[in-house]
Amino acid sequence: MIIAHTKKNCMVNNRKNGQGQGGEKTMYWVTGILGLAFALAPFVLGYSNNAAALWTSILIGAATIVVSWIEGAQADREQWEYWTAAVLGVIAVVAPFIFGFGAEVVATWTSVILGGLIALFAGSKLTSGQWRKT
Fold this sequence. Notes:
Radius of gyration: 17 Å
Order of helices and strands: HHHHH
Helix content: over 70%
Structural class: mainly alpha
Distance between the termini: 22 Å
Strand content: under 5%
Number of domains: 1
Number of helices: 5
């Protein structure tokens, strides 16, 4: 118990000193790369002929890239970026069924998988408590 308490104090002190944020930088890269993959998927995976799937992928992918860049550029550790990325991920999961491209199997699975991963990674940062100011 003493070891856990000491470890927690070290983590808090490291955050105050600006250290121990490597996991957050990794998260910016992960969500940004997922957004890029989402934006390029219609062209790489061959469903750019479906307008709804094409624009859903491009817009959600681009928005995820922008939010990820803002997460990395800002030093204020606010949580709105994570909420935005998580919501974008959830929208991507349900988009095939809302926008009518559920019959396009590749587009549907791409949207569900990439959207789920974006929501998962962003949501994990929200539930980990690392976004809180110290």
